[in-house]
Specification:
With 173 residues, the chain is α+β, with helices and mostly antiparallel strands. It has one domain (8-170): Aminopeptidase (3-Layer(aba) Sandwich), CATH 3.40.630.30. Helices cover 28% and strands 27% of the residues. The protein contains four helices and seven strands; from the N terminus they run βααβββαβαββ. The protein has helices at residues 22-31, 43-55, 104-119, 135-143; strands spanning 13-16, 63-67, 73-81, 92-99, 125-131, 147-152, 164-170. The chain has a seven-stranded mixed beta sheet, sandwiched between helices. Strand 2 and strand 3 (73-81) form a beta hairpin. The longest helix has 16 residues, at 104-119.
């Protein structure tokens, strides 16, 4: 008997991440290593960084996991503070998205989730940076309403960083 096919986006479950998701988050990072120009930071530093991010969430700054409904991490998105200035800290957020597979629907699902969350908080702006060669994420961000605001040149000084585009999303309340 043939079963009806289900569109991949409908199988994506977005949930708040926790420390128990650390291994899946690191695996997605390995699949998406071009974000770090093919050279992941040391496994220990990366593990410590994401352990802190997953355990230090609050009502505004959160870490979301996209999974297939069976516990496999497909991608993640982190909303972090952009500023340490207490007057601006709750007004601007930095969004980082990492997809374990090249999927526009997964990227749109995560980006839209962060935008909807931000609308329920005091955040006024969301910022993100994407390598210029990541044309999938550039098109996803533009499709959900982010505006390109600048080009960050490649850095030759180690650790080298690729050329990146900076985007902003103005949060409607």
């Amino acid at each position: 008997m043939l079963r009806p096919s289900i569109a991949p986006a409908s199988r994506i479950l977005i949930r708040q991440g926790g420390v128990t998701d650390l291994e899946g988050v690191l695996q997605v990072c390995e699949k998406h290593s071009e974000y770090w120009d093919g050279r992941l930071p040391s496994e220990i530093r990366l593990s410590d960084y994401f352990r802190r991010a997953l355990s230090s969430q609050d009502e505004v700054f959160q870490f979301w996991i996209a999974d297939n409904g069976h516990g496999s991490v497909l991608g993640w998105e982190m909303l972090a503070a952009c500023s340490s200035d207490p007057a601006r800290r709750r007004l601007t957020g930095e969004v980082t998205t990492c997809l374990g597979q090249q999927s526009g629907s997964l990227g749109r699902t995560l980006a839209t989730h962060a935008i909807c969350h931000a609308a329920r908080t005091p955040l006024q702006y969301l910022f993100t940076q994407v390598p210029t060669r990541d044309t999938l994420m550039v098109s996803v961000l533009e499709a959900v309403g982010y505006q390109e605001v600048g080009l960050i040149p490649a850095a030759a000084k180690p650790p080298a960083q690729p050329e990146r585009l900076e985007f902003v999303y103005v949060v409607d309340h």
